Amino acid sequence: MKLRQLGKSGPQVSEIGLGCMSMSGMYGPADRKESIATIHAALDAGITLLDTGDFYGMGHNEMLIGEAIRDIPRDRFLVSVKFGAMRDPGGNWGSYDARPAAMKNFLAYTLQRLGLDHVDIYRPARLDPAVPVEETIGAISEMVQAGYVRHIGLSEVGPETIRRAASVHPISDLQIEYSLISRGIEDKILPACRELGIGITAYGVLARGLISGHWQGAKGPGDFRVRSPRFQEGNVERNLALVETLREIAATRGASVAQLAIAWVAAQGDDIVPLVGARRRDRLSEALGALDLALTPDDLAAIEQAVPKGAAAGERYDAKQMAVLDSEKSGFGKG
How far apart are CA 140 and CA 148, in angstroms? Predict the structure, then answer.
């Protein structure tokens, strides 16, 4: 497993990371034993970065990871945690809270659930419009000084917010959606990060399964893709047609669609670390196969022709979510 540097100030991590969100019900039911086995398989394969959020399953995901890493040497993994999204007892989503006092409370519970004395990368999940980002980052910086956090990251914010945050404390990486059908960061956000020496941890590299080559439909009311525009009737058919063009290209390289899509993201720069959302060992094994797929200029040109920027039908989130994304307001271009 090769390593990549997360920005000028961040840690070295494996060239792909494991996103653990889907292990806690976001895409419908998941098998606990298989999820833990998948985390162990990822670590055994050399993956060092585990990504989560304290609101995934209302703490379930952190407890799951905590159980999985309990007997793993601490120098074999890094945990990246997002905070701030509010939930109610029914699992419904509310607002975001990135006040300094709230952040410290969230962090205390995160450390307890994970069974760790520090988080490797800590980041607000979204920009809280009621709290200046400088206050949030300044408070996390205090947690760095206290030893509870090693590095500070950001998530789903635009260039102006990135610059304001970086003026307070070095930022290791921006976590944001980036895939063959979500390429908006290329316009303003990615250039800003590169100017400032900030890495990218790319989530949604398979567009939540849409371009995995395995899409069989959402898994019931607990699966948030039921409401996602790209999965709605009319849009999903058009998007799956794009997948079939990718399947033809992948076949020429003896690869799967998922491997092609992951390899494409990884090929966009050594400062980008794709997060794969595998929750089963077979899907993890397939994703790891992308590491052996070195895309040639001809491959990249064929992919670009098959799925040009902006080709996807439907937005990446519903209208309510899109309205609160700082990345969409200030720098996330079409596609």
Answer: 9
